[in-house]
Amino acid sequence: MSFLYTEFICMPTRNCLRLHSTLLLLACILASWKTMAVPIADKSGWPDSTLQLNLFKPTDPISDPIVRSDTSSCVIPFTRAGNLILIKAHIDTLVGNFILDTGAPNLILNITYFRDYATTQHHDELQTGSTGTEATINRTLIKQFSLGTIHYSRVESDLINLGHLENSKGVKILGLIGVNLFKQCELIIDYEKSVIYLHHIKRKEATTYKNEQLKDESTYNTIPFDLRDNKIITFSEMAGKKLRFVVDCGAETNLLDSRLPDKIFEQVEISGRTLLLGTGNKKVEAITGILKGLQIANQEIAPLPIIITNMEKTCFSLNGCADGVLGYEFLSLQKIGFNFVTRKMYIWK
Asked: What per-residue confidence (pLDDT) applies to 1?
């Protein structure tokens, strides 16, 4: 599969300074989508650095790892690289920074540090850059991966080059931690305290476990979610249309599909425009704005910065497509949690 390389360029208007804080798309969402590079506009209105958005479509499903834990619950501190969550983890004999990325279906490793690992090649998964060159996606098997007190064995992982991400963030990054490592867990992210509460839900407690933070039900809303291709999907309704959003803590901004009905965009306050430069010097214009009136279940969400672009390539392997992506600017508004066993999302008020 080939990947589209594009880049956002802020047009020289007074909106560029505002775009400096909103045009920060994640370097890797790793969903079943395309690849984009995103220059960040400086105060003069022109890009001063480039991020890459790698969106992969796995054709061969990766099996879930074997999970065990020293203690079921742990609290993991995190730091931030921009709006990305960095946590320390052990992988075989290495210890280093990993990005928590709920938009990634599985563990993704930076090939720079794992070149000596035995790999299998997947020729139908190709990554295309601005030069038009392609690279085959490689996969390897990790013996041991540890996050807090939780340990994983026989972890299948994709190997890609994350050098662009390290350069843009100025930090060494071993990889991305994706959803299939949490499918037996509850994950709560507290951006204010910069900690993650992680609990390994054993089979016997699957229907009975309840975190201490969830005892007062008046302090949060409970929202069901789906897992499709190991991506968190939540549902909303706007202007009489049901919308599907990918919830992605590895995305630094939010996206909305430009193919949605016009009445959806009546809820968007337009703030500027960007140019997307694709392969063959093809230019596509995208719109930035503020989305108002978004409601998930019975909770109304505060106005969100949004980029409107064609999301035609965001369809899942089973059926259906995503209508948008909810990233950092949504997640960081409140404490948020995910129980992957019961498929429930908790949004604190």
From this structure: 26
Q: Mind giving me the DSSP string for 295-312? A: EETTEEPPPEEEEEE--T
In DSSP terms, 226 is beta-bridged to 233
Give pTM, 2 decimals: 0.79
- 47 burial (CB, 10 Å; 0-12 / 13-18 / 19+) is middle
Q: Are strands 241-247 and 324-326 parallel, antiparallel or unpaired?
A: parallel
Asked if the structure places residue 82 within a domain, the reply is yes
- Spatial CA neighbour of 299 closest among 190, 217, 221: 221
In whole angstroms, give the CA distance from residue 13 to residue 223: 40
Q: What is the pLDDT of residues 282-332, one digit of tens each?
A: 566 778 899 998 988 878 888 999 989 888 766 766 567 889 999 999 999
Kind plus residue range of the DSSP H or E element containing 142: strand 134-147
Q: Considering the domain boundaries, does residue 299 fall inside one?
A: no
State how many domains the chain has: 1
What contacts 313, CB < 8 A, 6 or more positions away? Answer: 4, 33, 34, 55
How do residues 85-103 score in pLDDT, each as one tens digit? Answer: 999 999 999 999 999 999 8
Q: Check if the beta carbon of residue 67 is closer than 8 Å to that of residue 340.
A: no
pLDDT value, residue 127: 42
What parts of the chain have a pLDDT lower than 70? 1-61, 122-136, 275-284, 313-314, 316-319
Inside any domain, residue 83? yes
- What is the residue range of 150's domain? 66-99+110-121+133-214
d(CA 233, CA 324): 10
Strand-pair category, 241-247 with 255-257: unpaired
**DSSP letters along 199-263, please?**
EE--GGGTTT---GGGS-GGGEEEEE-EEETTEEEEEEEETTEEEEEEE-TT-SS-EEETTS-HH
CA distance 311 to 34: 9
User: Residues with Cβ < 8 Å from 30, sequence gap 6 or more?
Assistant: 54, 55, 56, 101, 103, 104, 105, 108, 176, 178, 250
Q: What is the DSSP string of 81-96?
A: ETTEEEEEEEETTEEE
